[in-house]
Amino acid sequence: xxxxxxxxxxxxxxxxxxxxxxQPTAAPQPGEPARVRMPAPPRTVxxxxxxxxxxxxxxxxxxxxxxxQRSQHRSxxxxxxxxRVQARERVDVxxxxxxxxxxxxxxxDAAAAEHGVAxxxxxxxxxxDGRVLAAPHGxxxxxxxxxxxxxxxxxxxxxxxxxxxxxxxxxxxQRTISEHRASRxxxxxxxxxxxxxxxxxxxxxxxxxxxxxxxxxxxxxxxVVTVARADDSxxxxxxxxxxxxxxxxxxxxxRQLLVEAEGFDHDGDPVAYDARVLARHFVSTRGLGSGGGxxxxxxxxxxxxxxxxxxxxLDLGEDASALRVRWRVVHxxxxxxxxxxxxxxxxxxxxxAGELAPIGGDTVRQR
Length: 367
Ligand code: HEC
Ligand code: HEC
Ligand code: HEC
Ligand code: HEC
Ligand code: HEC
What we know:
- By secondary structure, the chain is an alpha+beta fold.
- It is built from eleven helices and 15 strands.
- It has two domains: 2-206, no CATH class; 216-356, Immunoglobulin-like (Sandwich), CATH 2.60.40.
- Helix 2 (50-60) crosses helix 3.
- The site of one heme C has 27 residues, from helix 8, helix 9, helix 10 and helix 11.
């Protein structure tokens, strides 16, 4: 579709792109200096041979390639979680970011689908000069290198990690870059946290695993949790941002944190339960999904409004002080939100859990 975006047809394309999800990047104004291209979804048919070039990257940089192979960038289009959600969408707007090596005007061919976000997608921008983008400092390479300050900043990620809703320009669907800019880690690059240096000597390189939502250790870094009994019936769970350069959770609009507490009586039987979900809470105005209308009601994610902790008070009833309480904080990947505030889950990862002993109770039988 983007291929048609030239000349007189451009305004039609712009409205089509807007209608089906992508906001086109502003065209440079006359007299504006040409900017260095950073990674972004393609707007035209990718130049031929990019996947052959990618095979070269993989051959000569085997350690980086092994990590990329098992990363979610590589499986961005092929993993079943993505496929299930995409199947529910009315139009295919997802491919340019999830399979950026494919022709954006037609369904991805098998090779581009299998590559997902490839080496070339990040290092050889589609409308760049063909040289490999790299961070500013380092030695020579047997191929063209373009060392750029911007590539060592959030600009390397912004083309895909920040965008608006289909039908609602100005209403963000993912806003990790703005969240980063507003966080106390604004001066720490995304790569500093997400691409740590690993290996020794000649093997030393930046990890290309990009582990996050499935890795409990990474998730634990994001939050400092304090749990106490607030009064006879309430447990207070305070969640303060940890070493995280954006809200927690960030990214996909249906990411959420489940904060729950369950009370057990003397026999070890569960007798009380309360929970809250921290997320961007949307209301659907015209059916769910990116094609429909979505209005943000409120955002109670950790760190979404500065460094103050989010306080969750859970009610376990008037006998709560006599109960042993087990609490959990769980990162959930909601696949589809339901109108009643519930959600169909694609998966979840426990971040933290713990227990509070009963106050002045008799001996409790541990399970
Ligand atoms: C013929 C082998 C070969 C091929 C093909 C190749 N590279 Fe390299 N590349 C090297 C060598 C050797 C260096 C310099 C030593 C090093 O940093 O590993 C290098 C350097 C780099 C650097 C700079 C490292 C630094 O110092 O900051 C980047 C980034 C890079 N390559 C990415 C790529 C990407 C992406 C591709 C595919 C488009 C690619 N390379 C293809 C061999 C290759
Ligand atoms: C060409 C588009 C593109 C670029 C550029 C890009 N990403 Fe991604 N990224 C994606 C997509 C698409 C996914 C989702 C993959 C999936 O389906 O699981 C993703 C997933 C991730 C994840 C895993 C999220 C999770 O759920 O665990 C992390 C972390 C991440 N990206 C960080 C970065 C960082 C840091 C940069 C910049 C250095 C960057 N990305 C650049 C498209 C991109
Ligand atoms: C100070 C370290 C730090 C910085 C800087 C940082 N992140 Fe993260 N990021 C984390 C941690 C910790 C997590 C796990 C908690 C979470 O999911 O939010 C994470 C999670 C993510 C996820 C997974 C989202 C989810 O919740 O499933 C994505 C995508 C991501 N980061 C992208 C980025 C991008 C893009 C940038 C730069 C604009 C960035 N991060 C900057 C630490 C950081
Ligand atoms: C999601 C985007 C992304 C993908 C995919 C990606 N890279 Fe990188 N890569 C980066 C960024 C950003 C840096 C620079 C980070 C910094 O130093 O700030 C980098 C750094 C590097 C470096 C120099 C540092 C080092 O580790 O030696 C090499 C070499 C490299 N990448 C090769 C590759 C190869 C080969 C692939 C595919 C197998 C690949 N990259 C896939 C974003 C990406
Ligand atoms: C402008 C780029 C962009 C577009 C367009 C886009 N996505 Fe994504 N998507 C991302 C990025 C970046 C992430 C990683 C954030 C995270 O993991 O929370 C992601 C993550 C996801 C995830 C979570 C994957 C996982 O395994 O954790 C799903 C599901 C998803 N997208 C579905 C879709 C669907 C369906 C569409 C089309 C309606 C779509 N996306 C369009 C950039 C995009």
